[in-house]
Amino acid sequence: MSQEIYHHTFANGLTLLLERMAHVRSAALYFLVPAGCIYDPPPHLGIASVLADLITRGAGPRDSRELTLALDNLGLDRDESVGGIHIRFWGATLARNLPRALDIYADILRRPHLPADEMDAVKALALQDLQGLEDEPRQKVLIELRKHHYPPPLGQDRRGTEAGIDSLSVDVVRRHYQRLFRPRGTILSVAGNVEWQPLLDQVGRLFGDWQGGEEPVLELGAQPRPQEHLSKETTQTQIGIAYPSVPIGHADYYAAQGAVHVLSGGMSSRLFTEVREKRGLCYSVWASYQTFKDRGSILCYAGTTNERAQETLDVTLHELRRLQDGIDPEEVQRVQAGLKSSLIMQQESTNARAGALASDWYFLGRVRSFDEIRSAIDGLTPEGITEHVRRYPPRDLTIVTLGPQALKLSA
Amino acid sequence: MSQEIYHHTFANGLTLLLERMAHVRSAALYFLVPAGCIYDPPPHLGIASVLADLITRGAGPRDSRELTLALDNLGLDRDESVGGIHIRFWGATLARNLPRALDIYADILRRPHLPADEMDAVKALALQDLQGLEDEPRQKVLIELRKHHYPPPLGQDRRGTEAGIDSLSVDVVRRHYQRLFRPRGTILSVAGNVEWQPLLDQVGRLFGDWQGGEEPVLELGAQPRPQEHLSKETTQTQIGIAYPSVPIGHADYYAAQGAVHVLSGGMSSRLFTEVREKRGLCYSVWASYQTFKDRGSILCYAGTTNERAQETLDVTLHELRRLQDGIDPEEVQRVQAGLKSSLIMQQESTNARAGALASDWYFLGRVRSFDEIRSAIDGLTPEGITEHVRRYPPRDLTIVTLGPQALKLSA
Question: What is the pTM of this model?
């Protein structure tokens, strides 16, 4: 399948990407702005989330209400979210409405009002988002897992802290915006029925003269305590496990993905089979791969009854370790079938493609073609994955549990 | 945009639908089997969920493991779920793998092993799914809202009861399967790069001689107590509100959808603006439309701090009632833009189209064309929606709350 992919990096450092999809009528846009929550200063944890909410409350010639109306008038199905590295803005609509949506996003990124009189509502919402976690033990254990697994601030959560949110004045938020919102490191990707030259011209007009901001320096702290039990009178016990893997771009990257899919890539995968299907230990169990530019990790989750939590932890750890004993050729064939099927699905979604373009550019400085990915998937072998797992076995485990009782860690 | 839609109802009552999408490489399949949880007999609440799990654990020539392997080998991204009316099976993969997937689903629907030795694991999982609800107050309040809003068994939840799950033997599950799994009322829809004639021939071979099963008789009980507070020491208070609307197929259907979208169809919608953006009352608030064949409902949700729960309920109810005072032309234009944009997105997803075909057939006995839907959306007017809301105002409210303290109901 031929792909039409374009890219241009402007003199100010902003990168524009397009995948032209001639057979669709929609277009999706995706902005990555390098102002994620790992850059939240320690006295102001939660500031990226407050900024991401406040920034859409009026920009350029429009006040908060007019801005929302203008985007809804375009039928743009959109959202923003705060990740570790980036604040992300995305949306999809009819391709012919894309230019007007981009005009508005240029206002949001470059000329936001950050209105003082909306700070109370925005802070109240941020506090609720944080407090709501106490009623959501599943999410809570995964957030705590990342905080214990990564050296700070890499494991910081977007929800921040009560003290951090309380500390925020509109001036503090405006300075944070001034410092971090900048063209260098910002990526705009578009996928859909869109022509390159008019898009390039428009984005040049909208963002070409954008200047300012600074590259924040990130100093990593010491690795936190790798094992933690959060005591809570819940009906179920939540279990999170993490250990180091290779980052994307590493020669072992596809082998690492292959290993995770052997564990968790379908209903025949090992965790699903051994923990859920055979023993009925828990309704939800999975492993996933997560990467920063310089480090990758495997994260696992299981939620189970309090009575069977110890057995669930033991069986899960056993499956993680057993990967080193070897992998069947049939397991690799199934992983290949699943990964290739996902790749085809991604090719048919403008939202998925816009996200993938931006992610590739951030991590690799280029966009991988389908042919490249398919050929890497075809290159997976039982021996290759097993050798990778022996080089990067499950060790230096971070284990966080939440429930009425702590579990025994045989590790 | 031209559409290629095919349908055939076999002599035994099974309906096959296809939307041919020539520009994609994937295909999605979607089965609706009329064996949802409202047909769970009172002593066996939860039986549909147990059956939906057990039925994929071996069928035709394959045991449980072989069946899962065969589907994963096809790269089929799939799941099953239990709704009120139907048990649903769906999946998507490369179009060329569809025929082999259908062969396997014919075994699952017609020749399942329903193995006795997997009952313990399946029952354990069903119990965990039920017990896990106690740690998920958001889901809990919505389940209780439906139980209080609909006459039984329409509000029954798929998770059943502990007593119901405990009561199940493999023989009871097998009899339930024999009684409810049947061609009449079963719908199979396919969307993707698939030719009609070979599909029709294959499905005829696989399902044409399927017989048996009976049409279950549903007797509705008395409407339960419409107002309930569930006392629980949570950090947030969960609020659910429901009231009657028209069913799909009713002349007012699109007006009802328009009204829900004025309330909750985008970031400029009334609930989002008044409850969340202006007052910062709650992070999540929405209204949605739900339909059975003979009755529709509007369901609303808000989750907020305990301190602001009363204000959140009052403001939400005020917004529901205020619809009758009139709707701006601009609000209707935005609803139209949003609905049409969603329609375009749906046209580009094989999964979404397969689901929509089956749903249309179940509710309407035909598939609506995009032109028909678009023209109905274009026909929405402020007057039309306002008149509808006056005919079907928010009354006979069901209100269920969950949190440390009950709220005052001014209703």
Answer: 0.93
